[in-house]
Amino acid sequence: NDVTSYQQYLRAKALVRARSLAGLTDAVVLLEQVVAREPNYAPAWGLLAQAYTLTPQYYESGRAATIDETRRVVGASLPKAEAAARRAIELDPNGADGYLSLGYAQLSGGKILLGEDLLRKALALDPNNPDALHFYSGLLANAGRLKEALAMRQRLQVLEPFVPIFVQNTALIMWENGQSDAAFAL
């Protein structure tokens, strides 16, 4: 990979983690440029899939969006996410990025068991992948498996203590586990 592609990938990663529609939109533009220039760059395909999957959640109309608008945004994003994630897996079947992105896309599309299996595969390939820990611990928390989610969040916090979305969700899961003082301190 050339230096420009790698720099764009890193910039896009920060934008995806910032979790705003503008950031996700900018990340998609950067990553589409990267994969056009470097079509065999598996991590860029995986991150592009993640950005596509997250876009509907941060759609600017948000709660004011009509059902038709929401369907349009999801309908445009999820197929792109799945295709990009599958390309990442095709390029690097032993890399976690494609599996975690495909897993998150499946979760977003309502395919919970398939999404969970893919996230577990990502963690089996890379047990310290911050994004896989983030998404999988969220799934565990939503399923009421709060102690498991907390253990995963604590590991994530050691790996990535300064990513705001990770810190916010860790604090929420701490609070849900009855650790309100620690959650507020975080």
Describe the structure.
Helix content is 77%, strand content 0%. By secondary structure, it is an all-alpha fold. The mean pLDDT is 93.
Secondary-structure element order, as H and E? Answer: HHHHHHHHHH
Report the portion of residues in β strands.
Answer: under 5%
What is the global morphology? globular
Percent range for helical residues?
Answer: over 70%
Q: Can you count the helices?
A: 10
Name the poorly predicted regions.
none
Residue-averaged pLDDT: 93
Structural class: mainly alpha
Give the beta-strand count. 0
Question: What is the structure about, briefly put?
Answer:
The radius of gyration is 16 Å and the shape is globular.
List the helices and strands and how they pair.
Blueprint: H1 3-18, H2 21-37, H3 42-54, H4 67-91, H5 96-108, H6 112-125, H7 130-142, H8 146-159, H9 164-176, H10 180-185
Helix pairs in contact: 1-2, 1-3, 2-3, 3-4, 3-5, 4-5, 5-6, 6-7, 7-8, 8-9
Key traits:
186 residues, mainly alpha
